[in-house]
């Protein structure tokens, strides 16, 4: 840890000192913004975006490789940068924004040129994501879902040995705020012998933590568990939208396919591994009688510091709530610290067969659920597959998502003696299906 983590640091930009902000000066997450003058890399501070390339042009920061990478329309070049470059950039930006920092006076003079209100920009998907992999690292989520389908043996025998995952679809990853169309798909109702094709009736969200690959690995070269953390650039929130009825019919024997690849939403700000350093905690640890991880997934460094003390929250805002001015309703609050596998274990496992990861690839944790009913990170678990509907403040019931529902995910990192730093929001509203003309005619 270094001067950028100092809990006593305050910014001359007042909004960064508000205790409720996700973006105090200790955070400094990267994102890609568009203010109408082209996409480029910014850093969130309070209610504003710091235009990093504008800082370089004004000679407020050094013209380093990392600063140059911030003129690009994605974070990929920055993600591929050396750790020392990234540390240097974070250090100079911190000094620029700190009250009493060496760069304060010059930065204040250039304020108009370097700071843009977040409210005035469009935030984009932060990276050109080549590949996306989704894991299943919450043992509580896996146990809950398993017990709905296999009450006698909820956890499959591989769970405590293998960080289970599937290859997701990168092309349909969208930025927070993008509408999500209810997918059409093949489903088979419980009382039917034949499947039918139409809008999903069991649309769900999954609240997850994503992590971006920084430096990648060459094909054939595994990343050892002890070095896995060095390959994580940073973290964001992920909503792995899931059509449960499509999933139930298609998932055997090869896993999820069209039930999940119609959209995945990511939060636009990436909290760097360096910013997250004070919030690292020991890995959750295994229950009594659990097997130890195999040696390639086991390291003292990862066991001691491989977890993250993060909390993920999910809110819903239905169309009726929005129309009546009712505030979003919290559905769950879950601790990331209880995950069975650490991000480092997931990344090391992914490369253990020689699979190459590239800068900008996205890995996600799987649904983050804790041990209590109010910490379940998807509707499938919260309503027990629709058996126990939820009641919203308007009196509306929900078994799964309805058209017009907005799902809002929030998350933050916390540690004793340190300010809370947040991920920002990951939002998406469900849009009604577009039913093909011939099918609509048949139904009439
Ligand atoms: Ca998932």
**Main beta-sheet annotation:** 8 strands, mixed
Rg over CA atoms: 22 Å
Question: What is the end-to-end distance?
Answer: 65 Å
Please state the second-level CATH architecture of the largest domain.
Answer: Alpha-Beta Complex
Shape: globular
Derived structural class: alpha+beta
Query: Segments where pLDDT lies below 50 for 5+ residues?
Result: none
Give me the number of helical elements: 15
Bound molecules: calcium ion
Mean pLDDT reading: 96
- How many domain units? 2
- Please tally the β strands and state the result: 26
- Give the CATH topology of the largest domain: Fumarylacetoacetate hydrolase, domain 2
Q: What is the level 1 CATH name of the largest domain?
A: Alpha Beta
């Amino acid at each position: 840890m270094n001067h950028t983590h100092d809990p006593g640091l305050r910014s001359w930009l007042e909004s960064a000192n508000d205790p409720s902000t996700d973006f105090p000066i200790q955070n400094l997450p990267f994102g890609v913004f568009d203010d109408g003058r082209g996409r480029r890399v910014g850093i969130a501070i309070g209610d504003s975006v710091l235009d990093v390339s504008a800082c370089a042009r004004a000679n407020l920061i050094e013209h380093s490789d990392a600063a140059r990478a911030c003129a690009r329309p994605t974070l990929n070049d920055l993600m591929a940068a050396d750790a020392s470059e990234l540390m240097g950039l974070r250090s100079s930006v911190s000094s620029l924004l700190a009250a009493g920092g060496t760069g304060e006076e010059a930065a204040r003079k250039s304020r108009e040129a370097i700071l843009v209100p977040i409210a005035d920009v469009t935030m984009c998907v932060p990276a050109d994501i080549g590949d996306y992999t989704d894991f299943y690292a919450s043992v509580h989520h896996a146990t809950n879902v398993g017990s709905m389908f296999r009450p006698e043996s909820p956890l499959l025998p591989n769970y405590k040995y293998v960080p289970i995952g599937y290859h997701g679809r990168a092309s349909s990853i969208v930025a927070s705020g993008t509408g999500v169309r209810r997918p059409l798909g093949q489903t088979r109702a419980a009382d039917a012998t034949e499947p039918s094709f139409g809008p999903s009736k069991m649309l769900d969200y999954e609240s997850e933590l994503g992590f971006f690959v920084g430096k990648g690995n060459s094909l054939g070269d595994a990343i050892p568990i002890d070095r896995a953390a060095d390959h994580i650039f940073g973290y964001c929130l992920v909503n792995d939208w899931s059509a449960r009825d499509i999933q139930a019919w298609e998932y055997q024997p090869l896993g999820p396919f069209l039930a999940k690849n119609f959209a995945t939403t990511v939060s636009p700000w990436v909290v760097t591994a360096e910013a997250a350093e004070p919030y690292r905690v020991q890995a959750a640890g295994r229950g009594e009688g659990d097997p130890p991880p195999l040696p390639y997934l086991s390291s003292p460094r990862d066991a001691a510091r491989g977890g993250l003390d993060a909390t993920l929250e999910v809110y819903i805002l239905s169309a009726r709530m929005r129309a009546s001015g009712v505030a979003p309703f919290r559905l769950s609050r879950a601790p990331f610290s209880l995950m069975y596998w650490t991000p480092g274990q997931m990344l090391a496992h992914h490369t253990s067969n020689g699979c190459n990861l590239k800068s900008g690839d996205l890995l996600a944790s799987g649904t983050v659920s804790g041990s209590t009913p109010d910490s379940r990170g998807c509707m499938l678990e919260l309503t027990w597959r629709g058996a126990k509907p939820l009641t919203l403040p308007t009196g509306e019931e929900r078994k799964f998502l309805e058209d017009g529902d907005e799902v809002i995910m929030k998350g933050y990192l916390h540690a004793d003696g340190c300010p809370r730093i947040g991920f920002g929001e990951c939002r998406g509203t469900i849009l009604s299906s577009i039913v093909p003309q011939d099918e609509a005619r048949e139904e009439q």
